[in-house]
Write a structure and sequence with these properties.
The complex is a heterodimer of chains A (552) and B (545).
Chain A: E1 4-9, H1 13-24, E2 29-32, E3 44-48, E4 51-54, H2 65-70, E5 79-80, E6 86-89, E7 103-106, H3 110-118, H4 122-146, H5 153-159, H6 161-174, H7 176-185, H8 190-195, H9 201-212, H10 225-233, E8 244-245, H11 250-262, E9 266-268, E10 273-279, E11 282-288, E12 293-301, H12 305-312, H13 320-327, E13 336-342, H14 351-358, E14 362-365, H15 369-380, E15 389-394, E16 408-415, H16 424-442, H17 446-449, E17 450-456, H18 458-465, E18 501-503, H19 517-531, H20 538-551
Parallel strand pairs in A: 1-2, 1-12, 2-9, 6-14, 12-18
Antiparallel strand pairs in A: 3-4, 5-8, 6-7, 10-11, 11-12, 13-16, 13-17, 14-15, 15-16
Helix pairs in contact in A: 1-11, 1-19, 3-4, 4-6, 4-7, 4-10, 5-20, 6-20, 9-10, 9-15
Chain B: E1 4-12, H1 16-27, E2 32-35, E3 47-51, E4 54-57, H2 68-73, E5 83-85, E6 88-92, E7 98-102, H3 105-113, H4 117-141, H5 153-167, H6 171-182, H7 185-190, H8 196-203, H9 219-227, E8 239-241, H10 245-258, E9 262-264, E10 269-275, E11 278-284, E12 289-297, H11 301-307, H12 316-324, E13 331-338, H13 358-365, E14 368-371, H14 375-386, E15 395-399, E16 414-421, H15 433-450, H16 454-457, E17 458-464, H17 466-473, E18 509-511, H18 525-537
Classes of the chains: A alpha/beta (552), B alpha/beta (545).
C-alpha cells in the first residue's frame, strides 16, 4: 500500500471522482475513509428491516456534465426526475394550519407551471417564463466561472488588468449584459430578488426556501440569491429538481467507487485519517487512527477544509494567515433530515396534490417569505424553528423497492435546527415534533400511520460524515466563501500553502451540490503539478493561468 | 411656451449636494440657479429652532464624510464651517456597566483590555486595517463610475486605475476588502474580536440607515462606508458642525452665492421640461417656467426620474430599474429638549465593574452614546421592523450637541439628538399621530432603562418618523441615503447599471444627489462629481481663478 503517488482523504463523491481521474492518468492512488462503505454522504442504509433509507444526502443530485462524461456515468444509475418537482403548500402552514388556496404545483414544463401560478396571481404567471430565463442566464454566467480554476487575489494583484480581461472575454461570450445583471443579482437577498418579479406569497416563499436550503440565513439575508443562482449553475431549476437515485443514493456511490477501483485506485475504508504527514514542509502521506501510515507524494483532502486544515494538519505547519482563515470558515449546520416509515397514506382532500405527492413530488411548506424568515429567526438566537421550512418526499412513490410491500417511506429535510442548540436527544425530539406538526397540517391523520421515525440532526452529520458544525456544504455557501474565497484565498486553486497538500471537497470551488466538480478540478490541479514536478510557485501558476486565459 | 431666464444650470433641490454642485458650477463661471422647495436650504442637513431657544440638527446630525477637497475648493471654513471633533463613543450596558471608545488609542486600549486583552491588541490591528482599506477605497469617492455596457476610453482608464489601487493591497488585505463587501458586520467583527459588547456596538455602524440587521450579509460594507469619514484626521471630519448640520449647508450656500450662484427658497419644482429628448428647464408649482442649458436634480432617484420627469421621456427598462431601486426608510429621529444633563447609570458609578471619574463622565457625554448592548439586541430590534413594526427596544445613536456647542440650547439646558432604528417606513397600517407618539414613547422608555429619571427632565420632544422625513425633507420613504447602500446599489449599479456616471437618458439632465455614486452621508461627493461631469459635457474649463 505504501509509496502511493496520491492519497485521497475521504471517499465521498468528490474523493471518488478525483481518485478515478487520478488513477486513470496512471497515478497510484489510495482513497482513505473512516466509514466502512465508500460514498460519504451518498449512503443508503436499511434503517429498519425492509426499509432502505438515504441517511445522508436526501436532496438533489446534480452531477456535473463533465464528470458524467469523463467517468461515463450516463445510464449507470437510474435517476428519478418527477414531472412535478415541487408542490408548494399555500396558506400559513405555520399559523392557521390551512393551505386554503391549495397547493402550487411547479411542473417541469414552464407553461404548465405558469398556468398553475395564474391561480394565485396572473401577473406572477406572466412573469414566470422571463424569471426562469433570467435565472438561467445567471446560471450560464456562473457556469463560466465554475468551469474555471478561480482567479486568486494574488493573481489579480500580480497580473492585474490582463487577468480581468481574460475573465471578461470569457464572460462576454455569455453576454456582457447578462454578466452585469448576474453581478447585480449575486449580493441580493432572496426577498429582494423575488420582489422584483413576484407578488404572491406562495411563489416567493417556495422559491425563497430553495435559495436558503442548507444555509443558516433567512431569505431576507443579503446574498441569499446566491443559493438559487448556484443551483441554476449546477443545472437545477429555480423551483428545485429533486433528482433521486433509484434504489437509493448508495447506488451512485457504488458506481463512483467502481470507477475508481477499476481505474486502479485502492479503496481503504474503515480507516479514519489521524493526520496529514508533513516532511520538509511538504505533504508526505497520512497517518491512520488505527496506526500505520500511507506515504504519498501528494495528499488530496476531500474532507471539509476546516477539518483538514485545523485537525489533520499540524497548525505549526500552516502560515498564520491561513490558520486564521481556516478557523473563520463559517460552518453553521441547521438542516435536519427525517426518514418516516408509514403503513399507509391518507388523502389530503386535494386530488392533484395527492397524485403529485404519490408520484414523488417534493411537498414544500414555505408558504411565504415571512414564514421562512420567521423559521430562521429562532435559529438566529440559537433556538429551533417551531414552524420549520419542510420539504417532504414520498420516495416510495416512484420507487416502491425502498420499503416493504404496502409500506411507504417519507424523506424529509427541514430547517432551521442549528447545531449545538440542544442536547442531542432533546434536539431530535423537538425537531421531530416541529416537523410532524407541519406535516400533520396538510396530511391529517399522518400521526397514526407512522411506524418508525429516524432523525438526523446537524450533530449527526458531524459525527457520521465529519461535517464540521453539521454543515452539509463544508462551509456555508455565501459570497465571502465563494469563488476565489472558497475555502480561503490561498487555497482557492485547490493547492494549499503546504506543498503537496490539496483540497478538493465541497468546501472548494465551485462548492456544494453533489456535482463532483470540486473533486474533478482538484484532481486536475494535482495532475498538472505532478507533470511539472510539483510546482508550488504562485508566480509560475499565475503565468500559466494567463496563458490559459489567452488560449481560451 | 414662454420660458423665463437664461440660466446655464438649474439645480433642483438645495440640499448639501445640490449646493455643492451649484458652487462648483458657479466657480467655473456658469450662471446657476438653485431651486429649493422649503423656506431654508440644506435638505436633510438643516438646523432649526424647533422649540424656543433649542436648536436642532433636525435630521442629519453629525459630519463624517464631507470631502476635504470640497472643504478646500469652496473654502468652507471662510464661510463659517467649524467642525468640532467627536471624541468618544459610550455604549451603556445593562447592569450599569459600559464600554467606551475614545479618539485616544491608548485610552481605548485600556478600556477594551478590561474585557479582553486579546481584543485590545486586535482593536489596534483592526483600526490599522480599516484605515488601510479605507485609503484603498478612498479614490472611489472621487471616481466617476465607468459605464460597463459601452465603456469609453475614459472608462477603461478608470478601470485600470482601480485595478492599480487593488494591486496596491497585499493578498490578506484584498481578502479582507472582499469580505467587507460581502459579509455581515457581526460575522466580520467576530473574526477579529471576542467581546460581545464590542462586536455589538461596532456592528451598529454597519446598520445605520440600512434596512438590515448586523447579521445580514452586506452590512460590513456600511461599516467601512462609515469608516471612510474617520481617515481625514487632519480635518477632524468626524464631529459636529458648530451651529448644527444646518451650518454645513449654510456654509456651502454662502460659498455658492459668493461664487455667483443664485439660490431661491420656497420655490418648489414641479417638473423638468424636456423636448427632443433633452432637458430645457423646469416648471415651478404655480406655473413659472425657468429655462436652462442643463438641469441637475439633487433629489433621490425615485423623485428625480419618476416625479420630475414624464415616464415617456425614459426608456421602459430604465423606468423599471428605478422602480425596483431599493429606498426603504428604516430610521427615525427623536430630538429632546432637556432641563439638565441626563444621568446615565453607567456614568454614575452605580453598579458595574467600573467607576468613572466625574471628569471622564463629562467627557463621555460630549461624545456619542450608542444603545447597542448586544448583537442579539440589535437583531431583535430589526426583527420588529422586518414584520412591519417599529422596534420596541431600538438601536439608538445619541449626541448632546449643547455639550460642545452651547449656542444650541439656553444656558444650563441641553438638546439631545437621538437617531433611532428601526422605524420602517412601511409600518403595518401606516404612520399616524398615535403611532408616532408610541414610537417616541418606546424610545424614551428604552433610554430610561439606561438613564433613569430622563422622563422628568424632558421639556420638549420632537419625534420624526420616516414619513415625517419624507414629508418635510422630501426623502422618499424617509431613507437617509437616497437608496440603500447594498452592494447591488453601489458604484456601477447606483442607481442604474450604465447610468452611474451622473448622466441620465435625458440629455442635459443630471443626478447630483446621494442616490448617485458614492451614496449617502453628508459627503458632497455626488454633488461635486456631477458638477464636474456637467462641466466636461459643456466643455467648460474648470475653475475661474
Amino acid at each position: 500500500m505504501n509509496g502511493q503517488d496520491v492519497v485521497v482523504i475521504g471517499a465521498g463523491h468528490n474523493g471518488l471522482v478525483a481518485a478515478a481521474l487520478l488513477a486513470r492518468s496512471g497515478l497510484r492512488v489510495a482513497v482513505v475513509d473512516g466509514r466502512t462503505e465508500p460514498g460519504g454522504c451518498l449512503v443508503t442504509e436499511e434503517l429498519w428491516p425492509g426499509y432502505l433509507v438515504d441517511t445522508g444526502t436526501t436532496r438533489a443530485v446534480g452531477l456535473d456534465p463533465d464528470v458524467v462524461r469523463e467517468l461515463e456515468i450516463d445510464g449507470a444509475v437510474d435517476l428519478i426526475r418527477p414531472e412535478i418537482p415541487v408542490a408548494a403548500l399555500s396558506g400559513d402552514a405555520g399559523a392557521d394550519g390551512s393551505h386554503g388556496g391549495g397547493a402550487l404545483l411547479f411542473h417541469r414544463d414552464p407553461e404548465v407551471t405558469a398556468r398553475n401560478i395564474a391561480r394565485f396571481s396572473a401577473r406572477d404567471a406572466a412573469r414566470w417564463p422571463a424569471f426562469l430565463e433570467a435565472v438561467e442566464n445567471a446560471g450560464r454566467v456562473l457556469r463560466v466561472l465554475y468551469r474555471e480554476v478561480p482567479l486568486v487575489p494574488a493573481g489579480i494583484r500580480r497580473t492585474g488588468l490582463r487577468h480581468l480581461i481574460g475573465a471578461g472575454v470569457r464572460l462576454r461570450r455569455v453576454g456582457k449584459k447578462e454578466a452585469l445583471e448576474t453581478t447585480r443579482m449575486l449580493p441580493m437577498s432572496m426577498e429582494e430578488l423575488l420582489a422584483e418579479w413576484f407578488e404572491s406569497d406562495i411563489v416567493a416563499g417556495s422559491l425563497a426556501a430553495e435559495g436558503v436550503a442548507g444555509i443558516t440565513l433567512g431569505p431576507l439575508g443579503g446574498a441569499t440569491a446566491l443559493g438559487l443562482l448556484h443551483g441554476a449553475a449546477c443545472g437545477r431549476s429555480p423551483a428545485g429538481s429533486q433528482w433521486r437515485v433509484r434504489g437509493g443514493m448508495a447506488r451512485l456511490a457504488a458506481v463512483l467507487a467502481e470507477r475508481a477501483t477499476t481505474a486502479g485506485a485502492e479503496l481503504v475504508t474503515g480507516s479514519p485519517v489521524a493526520e496529514v504527514l508533513i516532511s520538509d514542509g511538504a505533504a508526505a502521506g497520512v497517518r491512520l487512527v488505527a496506526g500505520g501510515e500511507i506515504a504519498a507524494r501528494a495528499v488530496l483532502s476531500c474532507a471539509g477544509p476546516r477539518h483538514t486544515l485545523l485537525n489533520l494538519v499540524d497548525p505549526a505547519q500552516l502560515p498564520p494567515d491561513l490558520a486564521r482563515s481556516a478557523a473563520n470558515i463559517r460552518c453553521r449546520g441547521s438542516l435536519a433530515t427525517l426518514a418516516i416509515a408509514l403503513d399507509g397514506l391518507s388523502a389530503t382532500g386535494d386530488p392533484a396534490l395527492d397524485a403529485a405527492f404519490q408520484s414523488g413530488t417534493t411537498v414544500r411548506a414555505a408558504p411565504s417569505i415571512n414564514y421562512v424568515e420567521r423559521a430562521y429567526d429562532a435559529a438566529k438566537y440559537g433556538g429551533f424553528s417551531q414552524s420549520p421550512v419542510v420539504d417532504a418526499t414520498l420516495v416510495t412513490g416512484p420507487d416502491p423497492s425502498l420499503a416493504p410491500p404496502g409500506m411507504h417511506l417519507l424523506s424529509v429535510s427541514a430547517q432551521y435546527f442549528p447545531h449545538g442548540a440542544l442536547e442531542p436527544d432533546r434536539a431530535r425530539e423537538t425537531a421531530t415534533q416541529a416537523v410532524l406538526g407541519v406535516l400533520e397540517r396538510w396530511m391529517p391523520g399522518l400521526h397514526d400511520r407512522i411506524r418508525h421515525v429516524g432523525v438526523f440532526m446537524p450533530e449527526d452529520f458531524e459525527a457520521r460524515f465529519g461535517m464540521t458544525g453539521g454543515d452539509t456544504q463544508h462551509g456555508e455557501l455565501a459570497l465571502d466563501q465563494w469563488f476565489f474565497m472558497r475555502p480561503a484565498g490561498s487555497c482557492a486553486q485547490y493547492r494549499t500553502p503546504v506543498p503537496g497538500l490539496y483540497l478538493g471537497g465541497a468546501g472548494s470551488h465551485p462548492g456544494p451540490g453533489i456535482t463532483g466538480r470540486p473533486g474533478m478540478m482538484a484532481a486536475k490541479a494535482v495532475l498538472a503539478d505532478q507533470r511539472t514536478g510539483g510546482s508550488q510557485n504562485h508566480g509560475r501558476r499565475s503565468r500559466k493561468y494567463i496563458q490559459d486565459c489567452i488560449l481560451l | 411656451m414662454s420660458i423665463r431666464g437664461d440660466h446655464d444650470a438649474v439645480i433642483v433641490g438645495g440640499g448639501h449636494n445640490g449646493l455643492v454642485s451649484a458652487a462648483y458650477l458657479a466657480r467655473a463661471g456658469l450662471k446657476v440657479l438653485v431651486l429649493e422647495r422649503r423656506h431654508l436650504v440644506g435638505g436633510a442637513a438643516v438646523t432649526q429652532e424647533v422649540f424656543p431657544g433649542f436648536r436642532y440638527s433636525v435630521a442629519s446630525y453629525v459630519v463624517s464624510l464631507l470631502r476635504p477637497e470640497i472643504i478646500r475648493d469652496l473654502r468652507l471654513p471662510e464661510h463659517g464651517l467649524d467642525i468640532l471633533p467627536l471624541e468618544s463613543t459610550l455604549t451603556p450596558l445593562p447592569g450599569g456597566d459600559s464600554l467606551a471608545r475614545w479618539s485616544d488609542p491608548d485610552q481605548t486600549r485600556r478600556e477594551i483590555a478590561r474585557w479582553s486583552p486579546r481584543d485590545a491588541d486586535a482593536y489596534a490591528d483592526f483600526s490599522r486595517c480599516m484605515y488601510k482599506l479605507a485609503w484603498a477605497l478612498k479614490p472611489l469617492l472621487s471616481t466617476v463610475p465607468p459605464n460597463p455596457l459601452r465603456p469609453g476610453v475614459r472608462d477603461a482608464k478608470t478601470i485600470r486605475e482601480l485595478a492599480r489601487a487593488v494591486r496596491g493591497l497585499d493578498e490578506a488585505d484584498f481578502e479582507r476588502l472582499f469580505k467587507l463587501t460581502t459579509m455581515s458586520a457581526a460575522d466580520f467583527l467576530s473574526e477579529w474580536f471576542e467581546t460581545g459588547p464590542l462586536i455589538a456596538t461596532m456592528s451598529a455602524s454597519g446598520i445605520i440607515g440600512t434596512f438590515a440587521g448586523p447579521r445580514t450579509p452586506g452590512t460590513a460594507y456600511v461599516l467601512l462606508h462609515h469608516y471612510l469619514g474617520e481617515i481625514d484626521g487632519v480635518f477632524r471630519a468626524w464631529g459636529f458642525a458648530r451651529g448644527g448640520n444646518g451650518a454645513v449647508s449654510e456654509s456651502i450656500a454662502s460659498a455658492a452665492r459668493s461664487l455667483g450662484a443664485e439660490i431661491r427658497t420656497s420655490a418648489p419644482v414641479e417638473q423638468v421640461i424636456t423636448s427632443g429628448g433633452r432637458a430645457r428647464g423646469v416648471v415651478l408649482e404655480g406655473g413659472e417656467e425657468i429655462g436652462a442649458r442643463v438641469v441637475l436634480s439633487g433629489l433621490d432617484p425615485k423623485r428625480t426620474f419618476l416625479q420630475l420627469l414624464d415616464q415617456s421621456d425614459l426608456p421602459g427598462e430604465f423606468v423599471k430599474s428605478i422602480q425596483r431601486f431599493r429606498i426603504r426608510g428604516s430610521s427615525g429621529k427623536v430630538n429632546l429638549a432637556l432641563s439638565e444633563l441626563p444621568r446615565f447609570t453607567c456614568l454614575a458609578g452605580a453598579g458595574g465593574s467600573l467607576t468613572r471619574t466625574p471628569g471622564e463622565a463629562e467627557t463621555l457625554l460630549r461624545g456619542a452614546i450608542s444603545i447597542s448592548p448586544s448583537v442579539d439586541y440589535l437583531e431583535r430590534a430589526y426583527d420588529d421592523a422586518k414584520y412591519g413594526r417599529f422596534s420596541r427596544r431600538p438601536f439608538m445613536d445619541i449626541v448632546i450637541p449643547s455639550m460642545i456647542d452651547p449656542t444650541m440650547a439656553p444656558p444650563g439646558k441641553h438638546v439631545m439628538s437621538v437617531f433611532v432604528q428601526y422605524a420602517p417606513f412601511a409600518l403595518d397600517g401606516g404612520w399616524n399621530r398615535v403611532k408616532r407618539d408610541a414610537f417616541g414613547d418606546a424610545v424614551i422608555d428604552t433610554l430610561a432603562e439606561f438613564a433613569p429619571g430622563l422622563r422628568d427632565i424632558i421639556l420638549h420632544r420632537q419625534v420624526m418618523t420616516p414619513l415625517d422625513m419624507q414629508q418635510q425633507m422630501g426623502l422618499t420613504e424617509g431613507n437617509i441615503f437616497h437608496g440603500e447602500l447594498t452592494l447591488q446599489q453601489l458604484f456601477l449599479f447606483r442607481p442604474v447599471t450604465g447610468w452611474a456616471n451622473f448622466r441620465t437618458p435625458v440629455r442635459g439632465y443630471y443626478q447630483c444627489g446621494s442616490g448617485a455614486h458614492p451614496g449617502g452621508g453628508v459627503c458632497g461627493a455626488p454633488g461635486r462629481l456631477a458638477a464636474l461631469e456637467v462641466l466636461r459635457d459643456l466643455k467648460v474649463r474648470r475653475g475661474r481663478s
